[in-house]
Amino acid sequence: MRSLNNISLGQFIPGDSLIHRLDPRCKIVCTFMLLAGLFMASEPLDFVLWCALPCLFSRLSGTSMTTILKTGRPVVFLVAVTVFINLLWTPGHEILRIGPLRVTWEGITVAVGMGLRLFFLVIFAAMLMMTTSPMDFSAGLERLMSPIGRLGLPTSEMAMMMTIALRFIPTLFEETDRILKAQISRGADFDSGGLIRRARSFVPVLVPLFVLVFLRAENLATAMESRCYSPGAPRTRLHPLRWAARDSVAVICLFSFIAAVVALDRLVLGGVRPFR
Amino acid sequence: MQGVTYSYQGATAPAVTGVDLEVNPGEWLALVGANGSGKSTLAKICNALQIPTQGVCRVMGLDSSDPANTGEIRRNVALVFQNPEDQIVASIVEEDVAFGPENLGLPSGEIQIRVDRALELTGLLEYRGRGSSSLSGGQKQRLALAGALAMSPCALVLDESTSMLDPEGRESFLGCIGELNAQGMTIVQITHRMEEAVRAGRIAVMERGRVVWDGAPELFFGGEYLRWGFEEPLEFALHRELLARGILPGATLPVAEDMLRSLCL
Fold first, then answer.
1. Does A242 contact B at CB distance below 8 Å?
2. Chain B residue with minimal CA distance to A218?
3. I need a labelling partner for B204 at 20 to 30 A (CA). Which of A44, A142, B26, B172 fits?
4. Residue B264 lies in a domain
């Protein structure tokens, strides 16, 4: 069984690169722009252009392409299912028939488009999390959500919950790995049998994991309280957020890139549109 | 603490019963006792995490049952728990140390000074930008200690804080505590280990929620600890034997270095 410790989902990689130094609000806004732009893409060429972004990000953040691509690993199954469903259930011009299953040209293009969108979605979100510490992320998110906070929504509590959730991702993977190994050492088998049997075999892992999560949550709440944390109370920051000129430049550059890709898509390649 | 009793909701018996205990400023008190004797509950009462159901707990003259005093008590009495994983909030070392001062609403310059000082005291200055999950067990516990020290407390309560450390990590952690105590910080250390309790200036034994013995370590290690059912570490047996043979002067503590010196001289 593969170890869970090397899964890098949502993990922050400390560094001092240009991307690391950007204001978290800038990075959050840029990520949302990327996600919106991604869903406006409809041409194969668009996705080729989108590929430039992880490469540029890798160069500017000092993160290897392998690390970036690895973040997509946990969603490979989801992408595969999406591709499979779109491939076989999209009506259009039939190009292949295997029994009751029909593959259409439209199905292929929609499936590839959806798969790439999902994959890029995870990669772009991971790019944000890899270069933004959970504390910075929650501070940025809290500041961006402050207009909603004025309506009475507990934005600071929501941001703190997110910080803790992100902080505990590596710990939970470690604990899951430990429980898995403990169960394997006692004869549990997670690798053989059909889907249902395999799913059932995970029950002895999930039960102690849930117990552990609740215990951890209670202990952490006590520890936070002992360090004077009070939900909703105003807090200061070690590094207060400061929007610098480079943040404005980053937002403008990315907006220009997305606008250029969308314009190319709509005005130049508008007639083809296979990746709807 | 005067007549402090605390009962958990739904429990058949109180966790702590009629405890009278006074800890003086600058003192190092070791609180020893079996599992379930009420030591951790007492630690939480010191930090106003639990409010006594009966009796009074005063920290620097502030009554812990008054909600207006809770913040001040928690600022002055910092708590370090057993498992460092349960008390590290942030992913980056310096951000975690800053968590407490941030909650106090201090300006960023003051937070920076406190973080630097706490990291220096715990020997973690070079790890400040590192991910907290990449630290070793001993370093994580020192990070938890740094987080507590950044509150600039007058007293430190250690709730079995060394139980998950290896001998080297434990020695380094206790060395740090010793230095803090030498600088005047009050220490309340909850422990099962007699070789740790020996460093304290005073020892209190808890049994079934009560403080059943309270006194000087010389008296405790003179044989009292055997009465309360504590296992005798090897160096204690050696200490007893050396005392019996007159090699060691009377009323000494079973400190390995002292015994070695007496044997070699």
1. no
2. B86
3. B172
4. yes
- Residue B259 inside a domain? The answer is yes
Distance of residue B204 Cα from the nearest chain A Cα, in angstroms:
24
* Domain membership of residue B260 as a residue range: 232-265
3-state helix, strand, coil in chain A (%, to 5): 70, 5, 30
CB pairs under 8 A between A and B: 105
Which pTM was predicted? 0.81
Q: Which of B47, B49, B102 lies closest to A238 in CB terms?
A: B102
Question: B18-22: long-range contacts at Cβ-Cβ below 8 A with a sequence spacing of 24 or more?
Answer: B18/B54, B18/B55, B18/B210, B19/B55, B19/B209, B19/B210, B19/B211, B20/B211, B21/B204, B21/B211, B21/B214
- Per CB-CB distance under 8 Å, the chain B contacts of A142 are none
Domain count, chain B: 1
Lowest mean pLDDT across A216-220, B2-6, B67-71, B225-229: B225-229
Q: List A103's β-bridge partners, or say none.
A: A96
pLDDT per residue as tens, chain A (276 positions): 555 555 556 678 888 899 999 999 999 999 999 999 888 877 777 788 888 888 999 999 988 898 888 888 878 888 888 888 888 888 888 888 887 788 888 888 888 888 888 888 888 999 998 999 888 988 898 889 888 878 888 888 888 888 888 878 878 888 888 888 888 888 888 777 777 888 788 888 888 898 988 888 889 999 999 999 988 888 899 999 999 999 999 999 999 999 988 888 777 766 445 454
Q: Determine the angle formed by the axes of helices A24-40 and A134-144, rounding to 10 degrees.
A: 80
Q: ipTM score of the complex?
A: 0.85
Asked if A133 reaches chain B (Cβ–Cβ under 8 Å), the answer is: yes
- Among A160, A228, A230, A241, the residue to mutate for chain B (most B Cβ within 10 A): A228
Decide if B247 is inside a domain. Answer: yes
